[in-house]
């Protein structure tokens, strides 16, 4: 449908867009991403016909866009402007009706029945019928952007161009706008070409992406392929990590904060206390954790303590019961710190319950969390077998397990590839369990 061939754009002696080519078929949501100054918006202005090309061509249905009369091009292509371009003092329906201008003829330009039907459908598609008689300046940012989208849809375009349409919108309004656009591409065959600043929004909504840097194409492919961690780090000159969305097959991009080398280890800041019938681990840092504790008397507030808003300590693990014995074992592998804390609780029924806490100072992906869970379970089973008589330990009482990661320091996307960390953690768990089960009088309880 729309074809860009070897397009270059020049300001004075400098090429700001250099030899860009791509083709967008009907019904595709096509995204253009890249750092500031990469030429994204300049390319978009060339596509809508407002900039002269230094070389190359842009065609719509095989016809150069520069050869279309302005009204004819407006019937085929619409532009959704950024919020900063708003200067209307009309009500919502009047603004949407401006989208019918390309279809009006003669001196006395009146809206026809067909125009009214199209305007009504645009109001419905963008869910703004309820405030169609309100003045634009009285609306929120998200509502105003939906009004401009309705005006663009009233043009009945084949191609809709968007230059950072989610600027100045909060999260819910960003999602609402892009959901509406995605539905239109699927239901009506509308073609959307969007310059997007947010890589995660681009990942969620775009079918394909053009990644630009310094006016040139870096990559042009399906979204999953363009969102390459190594490639994005180079283009954006930032510490970027790629993860997978937990519910759909889309990548998620996160930024890693600057960390001062040689800073205090977070594991060293954990405070562990044991009193009669009470065991507690406290931290001022938010830890990401997995827990299978259920109906165990454990206070599940670690990393979620509301007291943090008042400047108090952030998280607490606490277990109520008769703590028979507890032990701590710490290991260091390079920049990775590991702390294993084990405790044995004597219940009222005289059956013993094992509580095992594993703290890892590092960044664990969802995959690494799952692998760590498997590793800890295997190490725990091995330790049980080595001391024997484990049946009397947990009969009627399942073991409880917490795996917590600081999400700072070294990244571990694949736990098994970190062989030394893998081995050291297994050894630390085994030693902890062996020490806990060392007393024969306890094993016989």
Task: Give a brief rundown of this model.
This protein is of the alpha/beta class. It has helices at residues 40-47, 70-76, 92-97, 113-125, 141-154, 171-188, 199-205, 223-226, 229-236, 366-387, 391-394, 419-436, 440-443; strands at 2-11, 14-24, 29-33, 55-60, 63-64, 77-80, 159-163, 191-195, 208-213, 216-222, 240-244, 251-255, 271-275, 278-283, 288-291, 299-300, 315-320, 322-333, 336-346, 352-361, 363-364, 400-405, 411-412.
Query: What portion of residues belong to β-strands?
Result: 25-35%
Strand segment tally: 23
Name of the CATH first level of the largest domain:
Alpha Beta
CATH topology of the largest domain: Rossmann fold
Classified in CATH, the superfamily of the largest domain is: P-loop containing nucleotide triphosphate hydrolases
Helix content: 25-40%
Strand order of the largest sheet: 6-7-8-3-9-10
Describe the largest sheet.
6 strands, mixed
Mean pLDDT: 79
Name the structural class: alpha/beta
Ranges with pLDDT <50 over ≥5 residues? 295-316, 389-397, 439-445
For the record, the count of structural domains works out to: 2
Rg (CA only)? 30 Å
Backbone shape: elongated
Distance between the termini: 78 Å
Task: Supply the number of helical segments.
Answer: 13
Please identify, by name, the CATH architecture of the largest domain: 3-Layer(aba) Sandwich
Domain ABC transporter: 2-239
Protein name: Cobalamin/Fe3+-siderophores transporter
Keywords: ATP-binding, Nucleotide-binding, Translocase, Transport
Pfam families: ABC_tran
């Amino acid at each position: 449908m729309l074809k860009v061939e070897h397009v270059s754009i020049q300001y004075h002696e400098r090429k700001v867009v250099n030899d860009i080519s791509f083709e967008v078929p009907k019904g595709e949501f096509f995204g253009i991403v890249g750092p500031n100054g990469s030429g994204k918006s300049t390319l978009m202005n060339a596509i809508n016909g407002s900039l002269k090309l230094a070389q190359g061509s842009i065609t719509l249905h095989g016809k150069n866009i520069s050869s279309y009369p302005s009204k004819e091009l407006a019937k085929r292509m619409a532009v959704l402007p950024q919020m900063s371009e708003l200067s209307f003092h009309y009500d919502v329906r009047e603004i949407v009706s401006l989208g019918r201008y390309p279809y009006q003829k003669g001196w006395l330009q009146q809206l026809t029945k067909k125009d009214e039907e199209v305007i009504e459908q645009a109001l419905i598609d963008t869910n703004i019928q309820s405030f169609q008689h309100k003045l634009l300046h009285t609306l929120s940012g998200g509502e105003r952007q939906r009004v401009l989208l309705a005006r663009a849809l009233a043009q009945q375009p084949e191609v809709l161009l968007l230059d950072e349409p989610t600027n100045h919108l909060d999260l819910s309004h960003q999602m609402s706008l892009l959901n509406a656009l995605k539905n239109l591409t699927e239901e009506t065959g509308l073609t959307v070409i969007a310059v997007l600043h947010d890589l995660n929004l681009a990942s969620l909504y775009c079918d394909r992406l053009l990644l630009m840097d310094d006016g040139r194409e870096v990559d042009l492919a399906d979204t999953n392929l363009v969102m390459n961690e190594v490639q994005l780090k180079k283009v954006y000159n930032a510490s970027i990590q790629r993860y997978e969305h937990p519910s759909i097959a889309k990548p998620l991009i996160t930024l890693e904060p600057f960390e001062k080398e040689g800073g205090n280890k977070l594991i060293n800041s954990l405070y562990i206390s044991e009193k009669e019938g009470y065991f507690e681990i406290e931290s001022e840092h938010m830890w990401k954790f997995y827990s299978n504790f259920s109906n165990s008397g454990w206070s599940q507030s670690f990393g979620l303590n509301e007291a943090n808003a008042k400047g108090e300590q952030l998280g607490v693990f606490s277990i109520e019961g008769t703590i028979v014995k507890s032990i701590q074992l710490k290991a260091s592998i390079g920049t990775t710190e590991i702390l294993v804390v084990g405790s044995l609780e004597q219940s009222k029924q005289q059956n013993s319950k094992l509580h095992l806490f594993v703290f890892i100072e590092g960044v664990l992906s969802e995959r690494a969390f799952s692998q760590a869970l498997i590793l800890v379970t295997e190490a725990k089973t091995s330790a049980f077998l080595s001391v024997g008589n484990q049946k009397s330990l947990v009969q009627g009482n399942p073991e409880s397990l917490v795996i917590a990661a600081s999400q700072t320091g070294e990244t571990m996307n694949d736990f098994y590839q970190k062989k030394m960390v893998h081995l050291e953690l297994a050894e630390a768990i085994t030693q902890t369990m062996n020490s806990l089960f060392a007393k024969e009088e306890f094993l016989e309880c």
